[in-house]
Specification:
This protein is α+β, with helices and mostly antiparallel strands. It is about 25% helix and about 15% strand. The termini are far apart. The structure holds zinc ion (ZN). The site of zinc ion (ZN) has 7 residues, from loops. Zinc ion (ZN) binds next to loops.
Length: about 60
Amino acid sequence: MGQCSCHPEIETQYICMKYNTYLCEECLTCRDPELYCKYRPSCLIWFMTKRQKRREQERK
Ligand SMILES: [Zn+2]
């Protein structure tokens, strides 16, 4: 567990391995979706980003 880089008061389990920063559920989006990231296959943040995008598309 660590503190969100945008919200120091929030503890979170989501970590960006590339930048070594924690992101809370509110901030849960990949910072550089266009860039290659070797941690992506095991990145929870990326997983949630993708899931959210899919949900947005279904809504349309
Ligand atoms: Zn946050």
